[in-house]
Specification:
CATH superfamily of the largest domain in chain A: HUPs
Distance between the termini of chain A: 42 Å
Radius of gyration of chain A: 19 Å
Helix content of chain A: 25-40%
CATH topology of the largest domain in chain A: Rossmann fold
Oligomer: homodimer
Strand content of chain A: 15-25%
Number of strands of chain A: 10
CATH class of the largest domain in chain A: Alpha Beta
Structural class of chain A: alpha/beta
Shape of chain A: globular
Number of domains of chain A: 2
Order of helices and strands of chain A: EHEHEHEHEHHEHEHHHEEE
CATH architecture of the largest domain in chain A: 3-Layer(aba) Sandwich
Strand order of the largest sheet of chain A: 1-4-3-2-6-7
Number of helices of chain A: 10
Largest interface: A-B, 32 and 32 residues
Largest sheet of chain A: 6 strands, parallel
Chain lengths: ~290, ~290
């Protein structure tokens, strides 16, 4: 079957509904396009888990601030289409902004509490409301059995999991590991903004996280001491400006003073004008890897 | 088939899902129980439109303020069950608060704008967030083809319609007319709070709305003059305290200074400690009835 590309909500819904009616399982990979190996790892998992694979390509305006890069967010639909064809995807849902948000649109899905007040929510307070809302819409349009999200956006993943549970979506959220370049930089569409000098500096996110892991492996349990060392390392690197570094509980996202159970070490750093995020999960009771 | 009563989300979901899989249409009537003729009119319409009829009975805590009547809201499940059996309902979904809201629940659906800032939202700012959230949950659990709501809760109906459109729920919202006692009082579970003297006063809501209609039929188009007359009428009635009276656009819920197109005249009045609401829609171009 050639890949189907649909732009209307009604077509996406009826195509996916037909699969459901035939007892076929449907997997959804929501993306903003400009696909990289990170996205493709989700697509491959979806392909292996489901009868029918849908990838949405939609740069969602409600998760950008006016000052952010909505207008310049990288796009290359032809390349995305080719990549998704190669992965054997069945359907690309590629709606316009107008198709997704009518002019009188005024409904939002909001996850409240620490999950949406800490980390990325501090500098991007609008972000998770936009994400939860568009994902709820995509879930209602595609009605997937499974939906795939990367650990790269750790906070987004936790918020989607929270939303699915709280609003009783009957959808399995499948979390997938971070995919990295060979020097450790986490794959991101925004990496394309970096010039060669900035690209070299950008590896400091991964290196700082690895350093934190080494410290914990050596027995350090004080978050403050670990964060201070990470901070020093990043500040010593050209082009960087720290947005946040934090060590939080992997479920509640509450900051942890001491590392007594599994934590998420999460980091957001501006490389000149490009904001990059990365994170690792570390369980002090299980430090083998 | 005897009526089924299920208390768990999983059982409600699997029973309704089975109907869907068999190509049967599912109608949902969400209620807080203590059913009256208003509810039963929705149930009858659902029965006539669908293969399988689900009535949810759940007093939703997230739509009450601490100061409100959540703890004393009238309940009589045995009577509700009997009434629904008589109407040939297939399934009653009767979950506990704990089943619907786990302790870490923190996701809300919020409709923003005039629709949720005017009228009832002024004195009950929490109300519509609670309603939209629980209805979204019920929609995801039951996955109905159609859902039934009364014009009695005009603002709630408009908000649900807005939410269904904005979040792309594939559900037909069926609005149903207000059902009244013979003296005009709109049926409401809260009418049971009224003593005989208060009950007599309570007809002023309907009488004030009828008076407004008469004025408009006679050619009056100024909202202020109509509202002033309604106010006078209510204030002259014992036990009353006006929460609001307003004349708004039926779609945007923006207040209308002049009546040039269809409007909603909406009214909320305290009868001692019981808050009652009522409304009528009037189209000045179509004043026949």
């Amino acid at each position: 079957m050639p890949i189907q590309i649909v732009q209307s909500i009604a077509d996406a819904r009826s195509t996916c509904r037909l699969q459901n009616r035939q007892g076929k399982s449907v997997g959804l990979v929501p993306t903003m396009g400009f696909l990289h190996e990170g996205h493709l790892s989700l697509v491959r998992q979806a392909r292996s888990d489901n009868d029918f694979v849908v990838v949405s390509v939609f740069v969602n305006p409600t998760q950008f601030l006016p000052s952010e890069d909505f207008d310049t967010y990288p796009q290359n639909f032809e390349q995305d289409q080719r990549l998704l064809e190669d992965e054997g995807v069945d359907l690309i849902f590629f709606p316009s902004t107008k198709e997704m948000y009518c002019s009188s649109n005024s409904t939002f899905v909001e996850v409240t509490g620490q999950l949406t007040t800490n980390l990325c929510a501090i500098s991007r307070p609008h972000f998770f409301r936009g994400v939860a809302t568009v994902v709820a819409k995509l879930f209602n349009i595609v009605e997937p059995d499974r939906a795939y999200f990367g650990h790269k956006d750790a906070q987004q993943l936790a918020i989607i999991q929270r939303m699915v549970q709280d609003l009783n979506f009957d959808i399995e959220v499948v979390p997938m590991p971070i995919v990295r370049d060979s020097d450790g930089l986490a794959k991101s569409s925004r990496n394309s903004y970096l010039n060669p000098d900035q690209r070299r500096s950008s590896t400091v996110l991964f290196r700082a996280l690895q350093h934190a892991k080494t410290l914990i492996t050596q027995g350090e349990r004080s978050s403050n001491r670990i964060l201070a060392e990470m901070e020093k390392m990043i500040q010593a690197t050209e082009y960087t400006r720290i947005d946040y570094i934090n060590i939080v509980c992997t479920t509640s996202f509450e900051p942890q003073e001491y590392i007594n159970s599994e934590v998420l070490i999460a980091i957001a750093v501006w490389i000149t004008n490009t904001r990059l995020i990365d994170s690792i999960r570390i369980d002090p009771a299980n430090l083998t890897s």
